[in-house]
């Protein structure tokens, strides 16, 4: 599943623009089809089959569609947690109980996000998750993830580490976003697996 791509020593901002540029050219049909295939592949993961609580997210823009996966997990009886962005870019969490449990929130200077409309459970709620599904723009052969740069999930990963929580970390991407190498900093943490429409790739456990 590894593909050649725009990797190397160029900084993360350049890479983000390149990956986002490719996503911006996708059609709604492309995004929906990728989401259906991604859900099918993800549901084959033993970690998701055994997980009782999964922290996930609602895709926006050109991200692979995640609603098919959220609905499939809910149908299995899995407790699904979704993030709500806080003013300092940290994440609170709420439960997903179906599409009608979402509301669209426009944060200042950011794109509109779909967030849980019910009770907030606090930033530490994620530490109860068996699996954390992460957004991203790319992942490399080491399992290092390139995010959007807001730092929200860096805080989540740091919170998990402080709590001694060890959920499986899985990033959801398109096939062409699995690349040889992305720039990584000391605070970056590898993921355990990437799911794309064509399959699953696992990385050595940290």
TrEMBL record:
Organism: Streptomyces nogalater
GO molecular function terms listed in the Swiss-Prot or TrEMBL record: 5-formyltetrahydrofolate cyclo-ligase activity
EC numbers: 6.3.3.2
Keyword flag 4Fe-4S: no
Family the entry assigns: Belongs to the 5-formyltetrahydrofolate cyclo-ligase family.
Reaction catalysis annotation: (6S)-5-formyl-5,6,7,8-tetrahydrofolate + ATP = (6R)-5,10-methenyltetrahydrofolate + ADP + phosphate
Matching PANTHER family: 5-FORMYLTETRAHYDROFOLATE CYCLO-LIGASE, ATPASE INHIBITOR/5-FORMYLTETRAHYDROFOLATE CYCLO-LIGASE
Top-rank EC class of the record's enzyme: ligase
Protein name: 5-formyltetrahydrofolate cyclo-ligase
Superkingdom per UniProt: Bacteria
Cofactor: Mg(2+)
Keywords: ATP-binding, Ligase, Magnesium, Metal-binding, Nucleotide-binding
Xref: SUPFAM superfamilies: NagB/RpiA/CoA transferase-like
């Amino acid at each position: 599943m590894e593909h050649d791509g725009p990797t190397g020593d160029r900084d993360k901002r350049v890479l983000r623009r390149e990956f986002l540029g490719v996503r911006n050219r996708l059609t709604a049909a492309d995004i929906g089809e990728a989401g259906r295939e991604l859900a099918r592949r993800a549901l084959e993961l033993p970690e998701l089959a055994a997980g009782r609580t999964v922290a996930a997210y609602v895709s926006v823009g050109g991200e692979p569609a995640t609603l098919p996966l959220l609905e499939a997990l809910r149908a299995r009886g899995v407790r699904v947690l979704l993030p709500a962005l806080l003013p300092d870019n940290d994440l609170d969490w709420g439960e997903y109980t179906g599409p009608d449990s979402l509301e669209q929130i426009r944060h200042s200077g950011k794109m509109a996000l779909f967030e849980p409309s019910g009770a907030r459970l606090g930033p530490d709620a994620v530490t109860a998750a068996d699996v954390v599904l992460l957004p991203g723009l790319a992942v490399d052969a080491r399992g290092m993830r390139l995010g959007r740069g807001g730092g929200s999930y860096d805080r989540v990963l740091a919170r998990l580490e402080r709590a001694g929580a060890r959920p499986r970390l899985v990033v959801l991407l398109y096939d062409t976003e699995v690349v040889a190498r992305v720039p990584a900093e000391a605070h970056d943490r590898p993921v355990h697996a990437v799911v794309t429409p064509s399959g699953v790739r696992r990385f050595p456990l940290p």
